[in-house]
Design goal:
By secondary structure, the protein is α/β, with parallel strands linked by helices. The protein is 36% helix and 16% strand. The longest helix is centred in the first third of the chain and has 19 residues.
Length: 297
Amino acid sequence: MVGVLNCVKLTYRYLLQRLSRKNISFSMSRPSSDMAAFQAEVKNSKNVLILSGAGVSAESGVPTFRGAGGFWRKYAAQELANPDAFSRNPSLVWEFYHYRREVMVTKKPNPAHKAIARFEQKMVNEGKKVVVVTQNIDELHRQAGTQSLIELHGTLFKTRCTSCGEVKENRDSPICEALRDRGMPDPQAQSSQIPLNLLPRCQSCSGLLRPHVVWFGENLDRNVLKRAMDEIQSCDLCLVVGTSSVVYPAAMFAPEVARRGVTVAEFNLEDTPETFNFKYHFSGPAGQLIPVALGNE
C-alpha cells in the first residue's frame, strides 16, 4: 500500500511540476548524444533500470495501434481497450485481442530485446542487477531471455475470469473455437457477434474470461506498481527505450529517476515531452542503438 501511495504522491508532484515548471531543476539544454560517455556510465553502474515501450516492439513488426494508421478495422485501440467496450461488446473486444495474440506467433525478439537480455545476464554474472519495466504486453522481452521483468500492463497470454477472478496463463491458438479465423483487421470487416456462451470461458467456474491486461481507465495492479516504484527509487542508471513518455503513470518514472540526480538516457526515434529532462538522448532505432550502448557490439 505504501508503494501505491508513494506513486500517487509522485504523480501529483510531477503533474504540478509539469504545470508550473517552478520546482524543476533540470537543464533545458540539448541532452548529450556522446555514446562513449554513456558507455562509461554503463560500465560503472551496479543497478540498472530499463523502461521499454511500444517502439521496441514495433521494430519486431508488432502493431502498436498508435499514430497515423494505428487502427484495427475502424477502431483506435482506446475504443476497445477499456472496460466499457468489453461490457458493451465482449465479442468485438475478444476479436481484437485474438488478432493480437495470433499476430505474436509470427513475431520474434529483435536485436534490442536480445541485447537487453544479454546485458542482464552479464550484469548478474558480475553480481550486479538489471530490471526491465515494460509497458508492452507481447512478452518479447521474456522470449529474448530477460529474467527480471516487470510487465506493467500485463500480458496477452494470460486471462482473468470476470466472475471468480482467477488468472491463468493461456497460449491456446485459437483461444476458443468460435474465434478461429476471426479478428482480421480489414476496415470493411464486420463484427462476428459471437454469442456470449461461445467466448472464452473460465475452466473453474465457467465465467466469461477477459484478457489479463490493464485497460484504459483501469489502475495498475498495486503489487506490480510497488515493484516498479522500488526499482525507480533504487537504480543508479536508467534507460528509456522506445516510449513516447505520454502514458501515465509510466510517463513519470524516468523523470522521477532524473529528479534524484541519476543519469537517464533516452533511446527513441524522435524527441518526447521529457527529452530535455534527461542527460542523454540517442535518436534512432533501438535495435541499432541498444546493442552498442550496452556493449554488445
